[in-house]
Design a protein that fits this description.
alpha+beta; 3-stranded antiparallel sheet; 43% helix; 14% strand; elongated
């Protein structure tokens, strides 16, 4: 993840519109809804592998033109919505580009095996002692 907020701002286009919801009469006057668009396919921030990974993992958020769209309208302030949108974008990109470490197969230790077998023997003896003697 070799991108910063400043690098992202060069790639992002903002579009504002009037938002529904709380705000009273202010809703009808102020464009507080913010739509962030970033063209993943033609972005210079990501390598070809990263672009392919983003297109695959975020396929439900990317349209057919390869544009990732994030809409924020939680706050009454356009500036706050822009900041929240950028933060959402960064979190989304980092999560999509994160590759977990491959798991290395390991064997259980001797003490663990011994403890399991000891418990197994104790359980077997307990069950054997529960049985009734058929020849009594």
């Amino acid at each position: 993840m070799n991108f910063s907020k400043e690098d992202l701002l060069k790639e992002i286009t903002f579009k504002t519109s009037r938002s529904g919801g709380k705000g009273g009469q202010n809703v009808n006057k102020v464009s507080s809804k913010v739509e962030l668009n970033i063209d993943v396919r033609s972005s210079a921030l990501f390598s070809e592998e990263q672009k392919a990974l983003l297109l695959f993992k975020l396929s439900n958020k990317i349209n057919s033109n390869g544009i990732l769209q994030i809409i924020t309208e939680e706050d009454r302030s356009q500036l706050v919505n822009k900041e929240r949108g950028i933060e959402k974008l960064i979190v989304l990109l980092r999560a999509a580009l994160h590759q977990p470490k491959t798991r290395k197969a390991t064997r259980p230790g001797k003490a663990v095996i011994e403890k399991r077998l000891k418990h197994k023997r104790a359980t077997a003896l307990r069950k054997i002692n529960r049985k009734k003697d058929l020849w009594d």
